[in-house]
Design a protein that fits this description.
Number of helices: 11
Pfam families: ArgJ
InterPro entries: Arg_biosynth_ArgJ, ArgJ-like_dom_sf, ArgJ_beta_C
GO cellular component, one term: cytoplasm
Radius of gyration: 22 Å
Shape: globular
EC number: 2.3.1.35, 2.3.1.1
Distance between the termini: 45 Å
Number of domains: 2
Order of helices and strands: EEEHEHEHHEEEHEHEHHHEEEHEEH
Subcellular location: Cytoplasm
Length: 407
């Protein structure tokens, strides 16, 4: 596998565009479009929140029932959530406009929104944005980056990645972009992720690969414990690489899954590391677990602990908070057998052994915890299973950002 420059336009046949529609934000791009030159197999996974935004409902129907998908229209600023039949009708209106200008069926158009809940979309601006983007569709890296920037809300940086692998003697590319900074919590988050590939693969295996992979990627991140109404991951495959279509779980399928995992994990970590107001990406890895499920439960519990997150912000090696979070996770383990380590670019240090603090330097621990990427590793000594979860520190700025988000 080779990591390359780019995002959603890296794969053959995928174009993108962005525009400033002024849906909420002023003087910045706030709409994006992804378009494939040929019809795509489509897969998707969506929020587990019972309160689902209109675009989620629209996309669930397209992914399940449409013969193919070919375009995605995304807006930032207004989530089109809790907007009733009117909001759902606006999804159809958006798809109809895109279908007209792109000359594709309306049920081949996916839509996505992110932003404030409860507000109706200004359809005059959405319509104008769609019409403005269609002539600007472009397959360049710059166009893909522009789209990644346009879908941001409280994000501080664009998030994209692309890789290449060989399938059936052909070079296949998988690229993606995402947004997500707050209201981030399993299972899936206020996150939108769009992954494109020129691989030829059956719709059934495309969906299976995505559904399996989100369990170890997007579902293992948390910023603030709030599961959004709009979470959407879309995966489009147009087959333009020319590889023999993957229709069974063979070696090519496993290679495809590994590349997809790299893309999704990279995007997931970029979101966790850009949590609202955060100063550090915080990774928790559980090793020595008796099962992967046990390891996941323990890792998620620590990553969502507000006290632990606050300690990371303070560069404080307050290991008791980590052990405490593991203890209320619901997973069974022996706390008197746990070893805990902190690790970053500044080094690695053991903090506790068999549940008891070792003689460590607080000064060195603070140095390790002062890096922009920090990892806590807990060994529960019960088996050989492992899992990682990703989050961030909890800062004063998180409260500031969310206290006046609507205004």
């Amino acid at each position: 596998m080779k990591v390359i420059e780019g995002g959603v336009t890296a794969a053959a046949g995928f174009l993108s565009a962005s525009t400033a529609a002024e849906i909420k934000y002023k003087n910045r791009q706030d709409m994006a479009m992804i378009y494939s030159e040929t019809p795509c197999k489509a897969a998707g996974t969506f929020t587990t929140n019972i309160v689902k935004a209109a675009p989620v409902k629209w996309d669930q129907n397209v992914v399940k029932n449409s013969p193919f998908a070919q375009a995605v229209v995304i807006n930032a600023g207004i989530a089109n959530a809790c907007t009733g039949a009117e909001g759902y009708g606006y999804c159809k209106d958006t798809a109809d406009v895109a279908a007209e200008v792109l000359k594709i069926p309306a049920d081949a158009v996916l839509v996505a929104s992110t932003g404030v809940i409860g507000m109706q979309l200004p359809m005059d601006r959405i319509t104008a944005g769609v019409k403005a983007m269609a002539p600007k569709l472009d397959g360049s890296t710059e166009s893909g980056t522009g789209a990644a920037q346009a879908i941001m809300t409280t994000d501080t940086k664009k998030k994209e990645v692309a890789v290449q692998v060989e399938l059936g003697g052909k070079t296949v590319t998988i690229g993606g972009m995402c947004k997500g900074s707050g209201m981030i919590h399993p299972n899936m988050c206020t996150m939108l992720a769009f992954v494109t590939t020129d691989a030829a693969i059956s719709k059934e295996l495309l969906q299976e690969a995505l559904s399996e992979d989100i369990q170890d990627t997007y579902n293992m991140i948390s910023v603030d414990g709030d599961t959004s109404t709009n979470d959407t991951v879309l995966l489009l495959a147009n087959g333009m690489s020319g590889n023999p279509e993957i229709t069974e779980k063979n070696e090519d399928y496993e290679t495809f899954k590994k590349a997809l995992n790299y893309v999704n994990e990279t995007l997931a970590k970029k979101m966790a590391g850009d949590g609202e107001g955060c100063t550090a990406l915080f990774e928790v890895t559980i090793v020595g677990a008796e099962s992967k499920e046990q390891a996941k439960i323990l890792a998620k519990s620590v990553i969502t602990s507000s006290l632990t997150k606050a300690a990371i912000f303070g560069h404080d090696a307050n290991w008791g908070r980590i052990l405490c979070a593991m203890g209320y996770s619901g997973a069974i383990f022996d706390p008197e057998k746990v070893d805990l380590f902190f690790q970053s670019a500044a080094g690695k240090m053991q903090i506790i052994e068999n549940g008891v603090a070792v003689d460590y330097s607080e000064e060195q621990a603070t140095k390790i915890l002062s890096e922009p990427e920090v990892t806590a590793i807990a060994d529960v000594k019960m088996g050989d299973a492992t899992a990682s979860a990703w989050g961030c520190d909890l800062t004063f700025d998180y409260v500031k950002i969310n206290a006046d988000y609507r205004s």
